[in-house]
């Protein structure tokens, strides 16, 4: 039981990161690489606030959300907007500029906080819960609950509300959306804003599970991408499913096969899913081609 | 001669380097690099060696990402895997250079298959993930066999590769330079051929690629495998350079370095990635310890390069010098004209559709439709909007799978084949909306369709064998002939993307015709054409039919239909309501009713 909760908690960490990537992918068809760096900085800020400055949990949550919003906003205006307006036909140049922003954020975080992982005892979140065969942190349940809550909330919002549908229309066909009076740039800005707040909050939620470290983004980005690939790119519920699948394979793989195989097992999971379901579990259906 | 004049007019006057000059400049560069140990200091030679190694990896990435337009991040893994395999083999058994190169390339190809087969199937992003994951897996894989790989501490004590005897550093450097230039020659020959032209279509529109008879999956996988080779060569070279291989050299930082080298130098430029690698390797050697401030500057540099120089250094210069552009298609010689005299198919074949039915959700787009089109005749398919004409064309060309019914071309049953296979059976088509790939001139854009039927394979292409040259000249001559027929001869050297809509449409028709298809499907070819252009089109269709082509035309322009069609079929609400000569059909009461009155009940109107 405690192993299962641990697995789902790790999976929920990946899912939260994948959700932040997905919110941007869903409307712009871009992977904003720097998002992983934003989460790392948010968790470092959360660490400093809780451990060094003695700020309470709720103000820290607010602080992290605002920090995520601001960093992502600056990053959008510096590394995404100029590229999409100046060189829209040059393929995936945004990949280079967002990777560059990622490198900058990570290097900046290392200058401020150093490169060692930092863990602090956080009231409530670090308390242990006994589950009969072992104990897990309260933070594990918080992570699972947040991932489920964020998934359901975003899924309903994109699926049911008018604004959510507008967001998805902007991604499906930018030109057609523009013709119908949708300002796709504003949709993109709003998506980066949502993803920024999400990344900021995620930074706090995952802090007790991952510790705060400047290179956290590098460690999480690939798992988040795999979660998206398994669940289907742009699928909100797919991100949760993919994240949990990775968490389960990693945790039980380490238990049964050996810890050094966990990454290889996740890779095998990815290959099997892509061979069986090339668009991922909740990927878009095959559209009309011509 | 007129062709040359047209070209000179289109691209402006002034000196432009011919193929001989280009190769000469490349040869001089090679000689300077080759004699580097005699000319430069030891540290400069080391920088050049590492630039050659990273340049090879970047050339591979550019082939996949730039030319084929497929994002992949796995080339650093191929590089690392080849380095480890070469290192392990050198420690355990052979140090022979060719054996190590073969082993390195083999393992890189295996890794490319492992990530490419699942990664290239449908989603554009899957390959990014699988190939990126390979890079992240490197430490785990190395840790699996620590006794062979040296584990996380690294593999040390690798002996130098040998040819006659162990190579010294200067000789190893020369080997690197030779391999680099051989690969450059290979990539240049590959890119400036039918491959380079079809890459433009692959980057632009995979549906169009299928309509030209090429499977996007197979083309992408082929390019991915080819692009793994230079990365593997680089890995073997670096393994024995210092006698040391550590997994850290093949991590995310190196992925970024290679990606940045391609972007900085210029995607889709032959030498850009090499220039980018040289600059970045030099900068890295100068600021040896990658401290945090260096990383901060490096990140800022990536952002600035992407924002300010999206086409890269060489790409930006090339943009200013359009007349220096290397053509993707050879020029036709006057003697090739005879080869282009015949536009009709080698083997004429008739089209027979029986009982075709297709339902989209609640809409019966086609209901038990039969249609015949004979070789040597122009057959028109007309009907109101939404009557199922385009669905019919899509079913014949394999983009829509019929629920029921058969489609035969000559003796071949097509209804279960993929669209690419159908195109290779001799079915050429155009689409309602012209879709023209960027970066090609009109004559090059017309010739892209020759790829699927090419007889000169990869080896003949890259070695520029006479077989390859003859085929290219035939295609060039036929492209010129079709363009002349359609009145586009004067714009053959213009950028295809800059043509007005009507001429783009004619270009697509020319593209479908140059492969001499047995069956030509045209979806509203005359819309947007001037009367003069329509007349030329009618003339071409008549000529094609006379030479044995089966022409099936979907068209609203009644002048064109009545003037050129031998047989007319009329669709309404997914049913064939009439067929016959233009005169018979135009007097048919049901046809008149459908066209003039609101005879189709609302519930039968198909979207």
Word description of this protein:
- The complex is a heterodimer of chains A (290) and B (607).
- Chain A is mainly alpha-helical.
- Helix content of chain A is 74%, strand content 2%.
- Chain A is built from eleven helices and two strands.
- Chain A has helices at 2-28, 35-52, 57-86, 93-113, 138-160, 162-172, 174-179, 184-210, 216-231, 236-256, 262-276, and strands spanning 128-130, 135-137.
- Chain A has a two-stranded antiparallel ribbon.
- In chain A, helix 1 crosses helix 9.
- Chain A starts with a helix and ends in a 14-residue tail after the last helix.
- The relative contact order of chain A is 0.20.
- With 607 residues, chain B is an alpha/beta fold.
- The longest helix of chain B has 26 residues, at 42-67.
- In chain B, the strands form three sheets. Chain B has a six-stranded mixed beta sheet with strand order 8-9-10-5-11-12, sandwiched between helices. A four-stranded antiparallel beta sheet of chain B has the order 4-3-6-7, with helices on one face. Chain B has a two-stranded antiparallel sheet with strand order 1-2.
- The model of chain B is unreliable at 1-5 and 599-607 (pLDDT under 50).
- In chain B, helix 6 (97-119) crosses helix 7 (126-144) and helix 9 (169-191) runs antiparallel to helix 12.
- At the A-B interface, helix 3, helix 4, helix 9 and helix 11 of A face helix 6, helix 7, helix 13 and helix 15 of B.
Detail the topology: elements first, then pairings.
The complex is a heterodimer of chains A (290) and B (607).
Chain A: H1 2-28, H2 35-52, H3 57-86, H4 93-113, E1 128-130, E2 135-137, H5 138-160, H6 162-172, H7 174-179, H8 184-210, H9 216-231, H10 236-256, H11 262-276
Antiparallel strand pairs in A: 1-2
Helix pairs in contact in A: 1-5, 1-6, 1-8, 1-9, 1-10, 2-3, 2-4, 2-8, 2-9, 3-4, 3-8, 5-6, 5-8, 5-10, 6-8, 9-10, 10-11
Chain B: H1 2-11, H2 19-34, H3 36-39, H4 42-67, H5 75-92, H6 97-119, H7 126-144, H8 146-149, E1 155-156, H9 169-191, H10 194-204, H11 206-211, H12 216-239, E2 244-245, H13 252-265, H14 272-286, H15 292-308, H16 312-320, E3 351-360, E4 363-373, E5 378-382, H17 389-396, E6 404-409, E7 412-413, H18 419-424, E8 427-429, H19 442-447, H20 458-462, H21 466-485, H22 501-513, E9 519-523, H23 531-546, E10 550-554, H24 558-564, E11 567-572, E12 575-580, H25 582-587, H26 589-596
Parallel strand pairs in B: 5-10, 5-11, 8-9, 9-10
Antiparallel strand pairs in B: 1-2, 3-4, 3-6, 6-7, 11-12
Helix pairs in contact in B: 4-9, 4-12, 4-13, 4-14, 5-6, 5-7, 5-12, 6-7, 6-12, 9-12, 13-14, 13-16
């Amino acid at each position: 039981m405690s192993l299962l909760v641990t697995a789902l908690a790790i999976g929920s960490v990946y899912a939260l990161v994948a959700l932040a990537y997905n919110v941007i992918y869903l409307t712009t068809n871009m992977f904003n690489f720097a998002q992983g760096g934003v989460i790392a900085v948010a968790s470092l800020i959360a660490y400093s606030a809780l451990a060094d400055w003695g700020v309470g949990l709720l103000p820290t949550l607010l602080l992290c959300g605002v920090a995520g919003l601001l960093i992502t906003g600056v990053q959008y205006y510096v590394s995404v907007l100029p590229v999409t307006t100046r060189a829209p036909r040059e393929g995936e140049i945004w990949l280079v500029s967002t990777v560059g922003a990622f490198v900058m954020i990570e290097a900046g975080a290392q200058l401020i906080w150093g490169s060692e992982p930092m863990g602090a005892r956080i009231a409530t979140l670090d308390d242990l819960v006994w589950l009969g065969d072992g104990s897990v942190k309260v933070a594990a349940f918080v992570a699972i609950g947040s991932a489920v809550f964020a998934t359901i909330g975003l899924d309903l919002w994109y699926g049911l509300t008018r604004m959510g549908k507008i967001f998805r229309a902007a991604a499906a066909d930018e030109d057609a959306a523009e013709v119908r009076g949708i300002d796709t740039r504003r949709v993109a800005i709003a998506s980066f804003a949502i993803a920024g707040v999400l990344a900021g909050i995620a930074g706090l939620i995952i802090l007790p599970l991952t510790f705060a470290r400047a290179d956290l983004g590098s460690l999480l980005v690939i798992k988040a991408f795999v979660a998206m690939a398994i669940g289907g790119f742009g699928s909100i519920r797919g991100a949760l499913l993919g994240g949990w699948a990775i968490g389960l394979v990693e945790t039980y793989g380490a238990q049964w096969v050996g810890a050094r195989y966990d990454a290889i097992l996740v890779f095998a999971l990815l290959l099997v899913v892509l061979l069986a379901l090339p668009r991922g579990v909740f990927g878009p259906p095959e559209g009309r081609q011509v | 001669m007129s062709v040359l004049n047209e070209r000179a007019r289109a691209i402006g006057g002034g000196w432009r380097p011919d193929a001989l000059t280009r190769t000469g400049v490349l040869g001089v560069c090679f000689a300077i690099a080759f004699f580097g140990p005699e000319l430069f200091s030891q540290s400069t030679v080391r920088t050049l060696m590492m630039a050659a190694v990273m340049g090879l990896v970047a050339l591979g990435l550019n082939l996949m990402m730039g030319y084929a337009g497929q994002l992949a991040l796995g080339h650093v893994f191929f590089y690392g895997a080849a380095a480890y395999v070469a290192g392990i083999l050198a420690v355990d058994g052979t140090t022979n250079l060719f054996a190590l190169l073969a082993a390195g390339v083999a393992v890189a190809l295996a890794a490319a298959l492992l990530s490419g087969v699942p990664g290239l199937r449908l989603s554009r992003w899957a390959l990014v993930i699988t190939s990126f994951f390979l890079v992240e897996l490197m430490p785990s894989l190395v840790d699996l066999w620590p006794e062979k790989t040296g584990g996380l501490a690294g593999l040390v004590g690798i002996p130098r590769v040998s040819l006659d005897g162990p190579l010294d550093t200067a000789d190893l450097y020369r080997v690197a330079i030779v391999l680099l230039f051989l690969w450059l020659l290979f990539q240049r020959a590959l890119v400036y051929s039918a491959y380079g032209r079809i890459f433009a279509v692959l980057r632009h529109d995979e549906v169009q690629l299928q309509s030209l008879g090429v499977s996007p999956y197979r083309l992408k996988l082929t390019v991915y495998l080819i692009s793994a080779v230079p990365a593997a060569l680089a890995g073997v070279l670096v393994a024995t350079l210092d006698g040391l291989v550590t997994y850290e050299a093949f991590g995310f930082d190196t992925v970024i370095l290679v990606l940045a080298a391609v972007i900085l130098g210029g995607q889709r430029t032959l030498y850009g990635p090499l220039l980018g690698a040289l600059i970045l390797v030099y900068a890295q050697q100068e600021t040896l310890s990658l401290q945090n401030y260096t990383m901060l500057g490096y990140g800022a540099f990536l952002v600035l390069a992407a924002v300010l120089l999206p086409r890269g250094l060489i790409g930006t210069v090339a943009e200013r010098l359009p007349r220096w552009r290397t053509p993707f298609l050879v020029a036709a010689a006057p003697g090739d004209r005879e080869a282009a005299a015949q536009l009709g198919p080698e083997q004429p074949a008739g089209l027979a559709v029986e009982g075709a039915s297709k339902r989209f959700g609640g809409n019966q787009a086609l209901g038990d439709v039969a249609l015949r089109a004979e070789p040597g005749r122009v057959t028109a398919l007309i009907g109101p909007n939404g009557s199922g004409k385009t669905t019919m064309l899509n079913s014949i060309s394999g983009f829509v799978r019929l629920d029921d019914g058969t489609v035969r071309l000559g003796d071949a049953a097509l209804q279960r084949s993929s669209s690419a296979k159908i195109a290779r059976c001799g079915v050429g088509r155009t689409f309602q909306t012209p879709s023209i790939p960027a970066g090609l001139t009109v004559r090059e854009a017309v010739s892209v369709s020759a790829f699927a039927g090419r007889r000169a394979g990869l080896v003949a292409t890259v070695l520029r064998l006479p077989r390859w040259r003859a085929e290219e000249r035939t295609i060039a001559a036929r492209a010129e002939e079709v363009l002349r027929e359609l009145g586009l001869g004067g714009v053959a050297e213009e950028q295809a993307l800059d043509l007005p809509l009507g001429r783009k449409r004619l270009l697509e028709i020319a593209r479908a015709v140059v492969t001499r298809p047995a069956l030509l499907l045209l979806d509203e070819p005359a819309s947007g054409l001037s009367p003069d252009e329509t007349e030329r089109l009618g003339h071409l269709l008549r000529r094609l039919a006379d030479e044995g082509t089966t022409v099936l035309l979907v068209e609203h322009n009644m002048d064109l239909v009545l003037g050129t069609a031998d047989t007319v079929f009329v669709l309404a609400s997914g049913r064939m309501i009439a067929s016959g000569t233009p005169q018979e059909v135009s007097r048919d009461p049901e046809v008149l009713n459908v066209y003039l009155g609101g005879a189709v009940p609302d519930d039968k109107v198909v979207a």
